[in-house]
């Protein structure tokens, strides 16, 4: 059994009529429930819920404060390498673009790490493009070994790996895995992933589960919103998270709700995810999965991020550069354009002004090293 | 009336233990300490960052007895490792063992907790295991050297009160160790009830940290815990199903 079987079942649902059948009454019923089921989730994502956003927000905020208190975890991504063998139609690192590619060597890595650590971060997410040749597991592993000297927790966002490879990385000190399906709708997935191993839908879909099986402490998933009908994509994402949560109770499952951002190429998605839609999605995630961490990236503009901190978000990135070595070097190619370019201190000030405590350290991988 | 509670060799006058998580700012911690009158404070080692100015430890008043907890541990080994690090970092030799392998409901894993209790008690720690209220597990924790038992009233952060009341009652009457009700208490009246039942102390965090006015709530809990304790010591009258005439046998004389 894998989530793929659920995908096959969910694909059969008549979405055009399904979304229309819900009323505000269904949404209110879901809001009064303890544990929401598949239908409640649909109700929360349906057009009918658009008129209940305030009620949803109140409940989502209550749940968030109860489970997470007034704290906001901060982390930052670090791009290790931008080599990629795939052609995804929404990304600047795609193999069809011609720009000088790079990957960090040990010295550059140390410089980058010390600059980031000096700004207070203890949790780091490392990213690479997908290239088993230029940034193989062994390379990531070597980098992580160095990064452990600077950070309490290191997570990875790299190409899907096998359980054994995930285990190897865990032994090197990685404790979290982020892996976005990007698109759950299979046909659209094939259309947007034109070339390379990423074309294999199922290999990607099952990778978060392999991460759980390998024993990562935290696994974070998400759909890149804007690639296909957002209601359906958000529905599949939340169902995927619930599937993993139910099957791997020892793993902390988290969600992200990244919206498509401008990049090097011309591609413009058909589905427009408005701010209202994004809010509805985040609220539905929180209500359906009260204990899941929800991450908000700098893809969103500062003004919107400032509002979303009260609507279910528990983790934020800050001080972000989406290019390799972007904290110490210039001239790289960003993977996509970020929107909130405030520095770390500005994010801290914003959180404090919102009565939230910025938290840089919430786990320590050193504590799990063999006794 | 003097009613000290001695735990790990330390006499305590307050039976309210508090937490440090979930506050909107660390500067609230000393204020909550003052209004709650608490003398024991739990802190998650995973949140301690000695390299940072914002280190949570900088906000804990020096007179407090520290109860580092092993939050984040999913196995006995992780809990042991965290406890040793806490001691090495100078946080004292008390430890609240928290081993949670279920991230959905955050319920403690009693069998891993027993294992961790054995190891740490043998190493001289004052061990306070957080547990699901279960008599045989509590007895094993006692045999393993626990200094007190910390059963949950309801799942962590749920503010649902004493959902496990009957089981707590059994632990209080059968386990010859202090019982400290931890997790679930959302209202001062529930803290008072736990104390009336004979709990030795209560530990709470969410109820204070997420109140609109945490300082006023801390004060409310201080009073509730002390009232509940007084009622317990005073010996509550027996509960009767129907109203009873105040002098059923001699009333006719009036
Ligand atoms: S999204 Fe990832 S796999 Fe696709 S082109 Fe960009 S870096 Fe490569």
Automatic annotation (TrEMBL), chain A:
Keyword DNA damage: no
EC number from the UniProt entry: 4.1.99.19
Cofactor(s) the record lists: [4Fe-4S] cluster
EC category name: lyase
Coiled-coil intervals, chain numbering: none
Superkingdom in the source lineage: Bacteria
Alphabetized PROSITE patterns for the sequence: RADICAL_SAM
Domain Radical SAM core residue range list: 70-305
GO function term, MF aspect, one: 2-iminoacetate synthase activity
Alphabetical keyword list: 4Fe-4S, Iron, Iron-sulfur, Lyase, Metal-binding, S-adenosyl-L-methionine
UniProt key word Mitochondrion: no
NCBIfam families from the UniProt entry: thiH
Protein name: 2-iminoacetate synthase ThiH
UniProt organism field: Paenibacillus tianjinensis
Gene that specifies this protein: thiH
From TrEMBL, chain B:
Assembly and interaction partners: Homotetramer. Forms heterodimers with either ThiH or ThiS.
Highest taxon listed in the record's lineage: Bacteria
Active site (catalytic residues): 96 (schiff-base intermediate with dxp)
InterPro entries linked to this entry: Aldolase_TIM, Thiazole_synthase_ThiG, ThiG
Position of the signal peptide: none
Reaction(s) catalysed (UniProt annotation): [ThiS sulfur-carrier protein]-C-terminal-Gly-aminoethanethioate + 2-iminoacetate + 1-deoxy-D-xylulose 5-phosphate = [ThiS sulfur-carrier protein]-C-terminal Gly-Gly + 2-[(2R,5Z)-2-carboxy-4-methylthiazol-5(2H)-ylidene]ethyl phosphate + 2 H2O + H(+)
Enzyme's top EC category: transferase
Thiazole synthase ThiG domain: residues covered: 7-248
Subcellular location: Cytoplasm
Family: Belongs to the ThiG family.
Gene3D superfamilies registered for this protein in UniProt: Aldolase class I
This protein's name: Thiazole synthase
Organism: Paenibacillus tianjinensis
Pathway participation: Cofactor biosynthesis; thiamine diphosphate biosynthesis
Positions bound to 1-deoxy-D-xylulose 5-phosphate: 157, 183-184, 205-206
Keywords, alphabetical: Cytoplasm, Schiff base, Thiamine biosynthesis, Transferase
Chain's role: Catalyzes the rearrangement of 1-deoxy-D-xylulose 5-phosphate (DXP) to produce the thiazole phosphate moiety of thiamine. Sulfur is provided by the thiocarboxylate moiety of the carrier protein ThiS. In vitro, sulfur can be provided by H(2)S.
Pfam families in alphabetical order: ThiG (PF05690)
EC number: 2.8.1.10
Family annotation (PANTHER family): THIAZOLE SYNTHASE
Upper taxonomic lineage: Bacteria, Bacillati, Bacillota, Bacilli, Bacillales
Predominant cellular place of this UniProt entry's protein: cytoplasm
